[in-house]
Specification:
The complex is a heterotrimer. Chain A has helices spanning about 1-5, 15-30, 40-45, 55-80, 90-100, 105-140, 140-160, 165-175, 205-220, 240-260, 270-280, 295-320, 325-335, 345, 350-380, 385-405, 405-425, 430-455, 465-485; strands at about 180, 190. Chain A is an all-alpha fold. In chain A, strand 1 and strand 2 (about 190) form a beta hairpin. Chain B folds into two domains: about 5-65; about 75-145, no CATH class. Chain B contains five helices and no strands. The two termini of chain B are about 40 Å apart. The relative contact order of chain C is 0.16. The chains are: A mainly alpha, B mainly alpha, C alpha/beta. Chains in contact: A-B, A-C, B-C. The interface of B and C includes residues 32 and 97 of B.
Chain lengths: ~500, ~150, ~325
Amino acid sequence: MELFSMDFSTLFTIENLIAIVIGTLYGLLIGALPGLGATIGIALILPFTYAMSPLGAILLLVAVYQGAEYGGSISSIVLGVPGTPAATATVIDGSVMAKKGYPGKALGYSLTGSYIGGLVGALVLMTLTIPLSTVAIKFGDPEFFLLGILGLVCVAGLSSSDIPKSIISVLLGLLLGMVGLDGFTGSQRFTFGSLSLLDGVSMIALLVGMFAVSEVLFTLGDLNKRYVTESKNLKTKLTWKEIKMVAKEMIRGSIIGSFVGVLPGLGAGPASWFAYTEAKRASKNPETFGKGEPNGIAAPEAANNGAVGGALVPLLTLGIPGSPATAVILGAFLIQGIQPGPKVFETHPDLVYGIFWGFLVATIAMYYLGKYTTSLWARMLTMPNYALTPIILIIALIGVYASNMNIFDVWVAIVAGVVAYFMKKLDFSLPAFILAFILGPIIETSLRRSLSLSDGSFSIFFTRGYSIVILILILFLLGAMIFQKRNPKGKSKDTEIPNL
Amino acid sequence: MSYKKGTNVMLLLITLVSAIFLYQSFSLKTLTTNQPIGPDFFPKVISILLIITCIISFITTLKKTEDRKVELEKFKFVIYTVVAAIVFVMCWQFLGLFYVCSFIFLFALLYLYNNNGSKFKKILTSLGISLVVILFVYAVFGKLLNVLF
Amino acid sequence: MGKKCSILVITFLLLATVLVACSSSTKTNENSNQSGGEKNTSDYPNRPITFVVPFSAGGSGDIMTREVAKLAEKEFGQTIIVENKEGGSGAIALNYALSKPADGYTILNHSSTLPLTMASGEIPFEAKDIQPVATMVSNYQVLAVPKDSPFITFQDFVEYAKNNPGKLNVVSSQTYGTTHIFSLKIMEEADINFNYIAYDGGSEALTRILGGNGDAITSSGEVVQQQVESGDLRLLGVSSAERLPTHPDVPTFKELGITSIDDELIWRAYFVRPGTPEEIVEKITEVLRKVSETPEFKEYAKNTNQDIYFKTGEELTEVFNNYYEDGKELFESIKK
């Protein structure tokens, strides 16, 4: 097997190892800063790779990517501020568990989940690259439309007890997702003459506003509280028993993440939500979700790190970036004079297999470096609320600005925060809103393209193999939900997510 | 705040927003070459659905007999914080002195929230924390990430 | 306690002084910016220059600008700051660059898409709002089909389209982009009609064509280059004026009778605000010319599958205006 026949001495050079360590540490930091994520982190460090060897350069960026996807969960858990869509699902249970006084445990679940996710992603990348990319490429617009619908059905499974209100949340998210230039006709939709709205409402501004700013306003009720009083609760160590408890969902999340990550355009955000809803659906005690359930942290975290390996699949085999972060990595390849794509396995086999193995090494590095650095972040929770709250607020606003260098986004975050404060108080569902906002454009554009392809006929959704598979999945989920509703025993399962 | 009243106000606001979106989507093109549905189709469908669900939710809220009080803890602080944030971002946007503005903003909030100890001690701790945080911001965002504020 | 307090007070005082000093120095800087623009054009540049990129960091425009900035720093003898102002189809960056004084210290990067988005009315700016300085690189465009497609030549494609109007699905990137104009010109001159299906970028369109979700693709040469080499895609025609040295068997569109497609290229260029003093524009042009001739820049262009394309002055203004006028005319015709 070619995978093992590579010359490992080219991988374990000082330069490559330093690249992996620096990349991971930097990724952890960038990920942990609210508003900044893998994409921005990779873009910012890109110029430093120009002078490096191709393998070292790519490994540095891949390590940043892996580290940042895990790092995102640090601010989600410790501060309740999701920096990226991929880390939003982690907020639900992660920040609750941290605020119960166990930030170390919460970070431990997220780190272990990320590690397993990263490993599964790496294995998928190493063994299934070619077959996966041939499947992924068959996914056309009809499939993306149905996957979007599948996502919305998942949200319905998440939502609160007040059904009209969760439907309103979904519709509102879809509506807001339509602001901006319409990609097909160039019409400006609902931009109200603002240039900053031409590309739509900034997702990061909305995320930080809805989760961080509103959370800050919530904590004002309890300013003298200190979340963590015992420093032993800062340790990220998990016992075997604890790991075994979340093992199943971690594996499941990793697999979901790796496969969704392969599909260009979907990526880590939806993947982590799919994993979260699946973990909740499969759980024997779904009512514990939203109250600090370990599976609610481990599953989405496994998924978003699994998606990293997945996103590298179409990049390496087809030269097609599966996510914004891999688009920047593609740039790094080009600068090195290498075009990833169908021929790269023949022209640069040592590089490709070096990336495969190096990616595995980077994942292991992320686990160990993460283990020793993250409890530093958790330490923030030993501060009393009156000091912690203003710090969270200002870092969140600065993060929003830094993500796009546009002060308009900071205003969006403040408005979103105030609106979300009242929405939360009145039991509207913020996760449903956010996921609909993310999926809305995917659903709309792929529907319009599908109908364009089929000359307006809806049969395009029923006549394609993969479409039918996804349709059956949607019907299955809908059926399961209706069955749960009808079943009196399942009624207690319909608990709402507190404070979300 | 009454839960029912709050819900109704919120529903009214959402209905208003969707009405604006609906109104605006009538000025969008309906058909373009080679495209069975235009840019107006989705906004129209969604805003109409939104208005309908708002009405349904309005009715179900009315039907509910029991009402409860929604706790708005320390609402005064919420208002202070939002106003302070607005003033901060305005200063930042129009005066441009980012580090000075954020230092003052942070200091003001820290001082306002803290009700432990003497006035002097409060000022000192607030100053100290603000200093550390702003230096952190300067080092990480300003220097390491080259963000121009 | 007392000691701690005094330390805190001293640090604070120190910091306050530093902050005040910093803020006042930036203020004086700003003042000099405004006045410095009009006079003293001879000592340009005497302070750092900003390159504004309308795309996110890591995009192709950004990568080129960072390469140019690195090389131009030596020529200018000044630091160059690259600022990313993405969003609004380039309107945010454009608006930002136009809000700065016309003194040559703010240089905007954009591509051939700029005149087209202006022409389509997507962004509220017109051709007269910006002054092109120089283009740096270009890329030809292609019409390609999958390897198992029944179309061997462009004539096969046209014939099928004539017999089945509106049946062919051609995937591409962006509405009102360079490839859209290119596709519209093919339709107009060959007198055919196909479905132009726009994706968010060339690579997304490429995925669809490789997955069998489309009949043909129009894109820049760099997007499909790998697949053409590996044989997964077949070129039917290229937009350059001459046949490509790498694919001498593929005809140009001019040869195929589509005369309006003559050197229809995608290019990347630099712009300044109109009203910038003549000498300064000349200085920038000279620096960019030198950059385009360096071996490092040639290496960059080769690695990214682009060609050096240095056009300035009236020649460039004409190219820019042609794109703008073509866009106006063609987009008007499909908007009806």
